[in-house]
Amino acid sequence: RYFARNAKLYSELTSIPVEHVNTNFAGIFATSYLGLEMVAKVLATVIFLSFPDQAEFTIFTIYTAVAVSSTFVIAGLSELSEYGTWDFNYETIISNVGAAAKLVYEDVRLALMLPFQIAFGFASSFVPYYVFGTVIAGSDSLGTAWVGLLSAIIVLTGALMAIPSAYLANTYGKQVVMSIGGACLSFAGLIFFFISDSALGTWAAIIPFLIMYGIGRGTWENTNKAVIADFFTDTPDLSTAAFAAVSFSNGLAGSIGYFTFSDMTRLEMAGIVLIASVTATGCYLLASYIHESNKNSGSSRLAKYNS
């Protein structure tokens, strides 16, 4: 909601279409978020390799200091009249949960966006659990010592593609970027049907794999969220429920993956990621088509009324 409010105010002040502002802001957010995550991962690897005995205490002390500092920065931001509420009683919580569920039921665009969140949830549990935990950790040429550094490739890719993705989305449409992201998430599952773990667990194979998955993650962190903001630009109250539904569905899928993947074969896990990602891309394209149709229909009605 705060994101949507910022984007709309900026659009009104600059006369830039709010859809472009949403895309640009999402790109800046993703660059900052993923860039800091990359620094944290690389820093952890360096500390573990340099000071193995004091590594855990040092790393978590640094992380805690960054988190506390960020809290003070957030407290200094303008409220933009979005004060929210500190009412955390049972009735309010149930009402908010109900609002998110109701919006998913009533707005087909949001319902069609949930498969993309679910697909990334499955992929984001499959890659850490199996790719890092088995393929990389069990590799003769890689091993656990490189997990932190290799995981940084994912977030580095996502951070580096954020601004170019915003440009592509504003120039050629978000459909192009979202389709590329969906294809990269699909690749994260598809590749396991063609090569073995030992073949993937080499420097020559794992780096391209992580870059492809990084593009998929960057799309989810970036353009995906701009799409949700686009859908609810004129209804900021609904955008709160929409983003709640997005976070819940993604988190639920990730949790299901972590709890169930241990009982599956590698191809079963990869198949779930592949099928979910292909389905997600198709559902997004349908949601985008419905959104554009609704916009065009509304513009036509307005033009007819004004004439």
What's the gyration radius in Å? 21 Å
- Main sheet? none
- Roughly how many Å apart are the termini? 35 Å
Shape: globular
Count of alpha/pi helices: 12
Q: Helical percent range?
A: over 70%
How do the helices and strands follow one another from N- to C-terminus? HHHHHHHHHHHH
The low-confidence runs, each spanning 5 or more residues with pLDDT under 50, are 299-307
Category by helix and strand content:
mainly alpha
Q: How many β strands by DSSP?
A: 0
- Percent strand equals under 5%
What is the typical, i.e. mean, pLDDT?
80
Summarize this structure briefly.
This protein is mainly alpha-helical and 307 residues long.
Structure report:
- With 307 residues, the protein is an all-alpha fold.
- It has twelve helices and no strands.
- The protein has helices spanning 2-14, 18-50, 55-75, 90-106, 108-136, 147-172, 174-190, 197-200, 203-221, 223-231, 236-260, 266-306.
- Helix 2 packs antiparallel against helix 6 (147-172) and helix 2 (18-50) runs antiparallel to helix 10 (223-231).
- The model is unreliable at 299-307 (pLDDT under 50).
